[in-house]
């Protein structure tokens, strides 16, 4: 039984290679399946084909993000006091994947009906709820088993493997499953494939070797976890400003469901073209994820977040000027690099901005902020499209993300240099 920090470090070092292999395998299958499902191409186009409305597409994405917005604190309250996280993390991950299965089955049996459309949206909400819980648990467990100086390597290779696999599958799936309407609904067949791939990641995850937690918070219910945010923000100003950057930077999620719909005004969107654009989006971030991981292990994640946020802004600027298919492809290249790197930096930098005991709370707060924007943004974006057109959404994103970049550059230091280790003593046991 691990009882001291020295023993904890020895345990982590002993099983580090095993846990790295587990993390990479889980990323290869788990992330591949989920990214295939959540790509900003297949699901928005499928929803649009069922509804014929940009507003419904935005509404569906917003409702999904509402679930993600409300539940990270549930995840934090469930694990903050636990010495072991693996069991409950597996449970939440399985429940999340089941929603993907239900969406696929709904598409197969009811997809062409209004009932099927709203049932799909219902399961998207449940997916968001379970995802909000699961991500907090997954990241907190990863922080326990992977030391900070190896997280860049693990994150980079996880994304490299999953992006590469997703790109290959998306290319062939788009050209075969959708265009040939496999199982009577090519999109539903694609989502069913995504579920089976994601489920393989859970099997790999069971082989994790987890140390006993040393720094724990008192057992808290959801209300108490929310109340803990105020002292966290008060005593940790660096995290507070990072939280603001997360909110402002994530405004790009408002536009994501509409990238592919806007592209449809410049080109014809066949299943093969959707597969190609998804492949371009995935591949563009695949190789650069290794670069971001290497930079992060050497210099920290702050510089990665700065570079990728700036690239996301440039991608929106370029999107405003596209007139043909090649411009759309260039956009998905730049956006793929930026979005993948930004999320990698956001999800890893938050682990370093304070004491280990507060990791679940910080992850929950950061994800809640990003998902709040994801909940409100697409719905607002749908209304903006109906009233003023696609271009206004992209202009808003450019303006707000520029503010986020300025705050990041001026007010958020690199945590590995500032040695931030702040928590409220009366919340730790």
Automatic annotation (TrEMBL):
Q: Which UniProt keywords apply?
A: Membrane, Transmembrane, Transmembrane helix
> Has UniProt tagged this entry with the keyword Transmembrane?
yes
* InterPro entries, per database record: MFS, MFS_dom, MFS_trans_sf, Sugar_transport-like
The record's section on SUPFAM superfamilies has: MFS general substrate transporter
Q: Name one GO molecular function term.
A: transmembrane transporter activity
Top-level taxon = Bacteria
According to the record, the segments passing through the membrane are: 85-110, 116-139, 160-178, 190-208, 242-263, 269-291, 303-322, 328-347, 368-386, 392-412
| The protein, known as | MFS transporter
Q: Which lineage ranks, top first, belong to the organism behind this chain?
A: Bacteria, Pseudomonadati, Pseudomonadota, Gammaproteobacteria, OMG group
